[in-house]
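Please produce the structure of this protein holding adenosine-5'-diphosphate.
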Amino acid sequence: MKLAVYPGSFDPITRGHIDILEKTSKIFDKIIIAVVHNINKKALFTLEERVELIKESISHLDNVEVESFSGLLVDYIREKKACAIIRGLRTVSDFEYEATMAYMNKNLLPDVDTIFVMSRPEYIFISSSGVKEAAILGGDVSAMVPLPVEKKLKEKLKQ
Ligand code: ADP
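Below is the modeled complex.
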């Protein structure tokens, strides 16, 4: 079985992430979205909220699952016996960071490759941080995030 892992912060999941999943779920037998618990990155949503929002947003993709993890990505990949890491690419500025990460992971785990998937042109500008910033300032983010995220953002920002 061809299993791939799509790691990230997903704070929160956006339509850009879902586009990457819709494309790659046709290529791999199974995909695990691995929500990273990063103590150095201040998140708006808790790990549990991020996982829940992803579950609600990907119910149309039946070979995609979601889990959370902390620690070294390659250890997680090894444990899951995955054959690939999925990452999305928007602009050239993503490339430098992503290439460094991919080479690092390749060095640590030579059997596993990172597969990059280009964003749809209309989603290139979407990022989790941009969505949060716009929502905090009262902007309409409905075109950028799935409905469960839009609702949760409104709820969260009311508090
Ligand atoms: P991280 O903190 O690991 O960068 P993110 O949740 O921001 O986590 O992103 C996870 C992955 O999804 C990254 O590879 C990122 O480039 C990709 N991604 C984020 N937004 C988009 C988008 N709009 N289109 C395509 N890929 C995206």
